[in-house]
From TrEMBL:
Keywords: DNA-binding, Transcription, Transcription regulation. This is DNA-binding transcriptional regulator, FadR family. Transmembrane segments: none annotated. One of its GO terms (molecular function) is DNA-binding transcription factor activity. The keyword Transcription applies. It holds the Pfam family FCD. Residues 7-75 form the HTH gntR-type domain. Signal peptide: none annotated.
Length: 229
């Protein structure tokens, strides 16, 4: 388990560095901040950073030159994927979606019955944060708010066993909010159904909640199936 967590952290760090490269509009030949600056700003150790840089180097995103620093090699490899990689990711996401529909669908059903005022307020907060960050062009924060909304539903279900199961596979579910196919806006069109779902949970309307949830899942599935490079 420790190795898996360590690997996962290095992958997250690699993703943060990619996001930094995009936000700063760095180009081939540009240099990344020093190791000490990266470890401090990311709150990680040198070994984790080293693994993340090795991962980026294997993807030909950066080049580590001993004694000189880490330089951008190419910004395209993490924006363009082979058709084989895309099809593999599609299959993974569609299989994960089947499991998510089963578990989250039950969570929605239970949330309709058990959601407290605090649960509702938390869901409202995350949807507001999603819109606010989207309007501010803060895509990563918007996606985190979207994930927070769904996590609030799991908590509102008030079922410890269901939460335990979902928590055990959260890393898999998180991929829906972790720039699938390298895109951060692929599931935007499902947002209106989130509002409908929230209203149905607030009014304790199980049928409307199930319908809104199914529309979200159908939209997500359609976006995955239709994605082309």
């Amino acid at each position: 388990m420790k190795l898996l967590k360590k690997k996962r952290l290095s992958e997250l760090v690699a993703g943060e560095i990619k996001e930094y490269i995009k936000q700063e509009n760095l180009q081939a030949g540009d240099r990344l901040p020093a190791v000490s600056e990266l470890t401090n700003s990311l709150g990680i150790g040198r070994s984790t950073l080293r693994e993340a840089l090795q991962l980026l180097e294997s993807q030909e995103v950066v080049e580590v030159l001993n004694g000189k620093g880490t330089f951008i090699k190419d910004v395209k490899p993490f924006q363009i994927r082979t058709s084989f990689e895309v099809e593999n990711e599609k299959m993974f996401l569609l299989e994960a979606l089947e499991v998510r529909i089963a578990l989250e669908g039950k969570a929605v059903d239970l949330a309709v019955k058990h959601a407290s005022k605090a649960d509702i307020e938390k869901m409202e907060f995350y949807l507001q944060e999603y819109v606010r960050n989207l309007n501010a062009n803060q895509r990563e924060q918007a996606n985190q708010a979207d994930a927070g909304f769904h996590q609030a539903i799991y908590e509102a279900a008030n079922n410890q066993l269901l939460n335990s199961i979902i928590d055990s596979i959260w890393d898999t579910f998180h991929e829906f909010w972790n720039q699938p196919f390298g895109k951060d806006d692929i599931f935007d069109q499902s947002y209106p159904y989130h509002e409908s779902l929230l209203e149905a949970i607030k009014s304790q309307n199980a049928a409307e909640a199930a319908l809104a949830f199914q529309k979200i899942m159908d939209s997500v599935k359609s976006s995955i199936e239709k994605f082309n490079q």
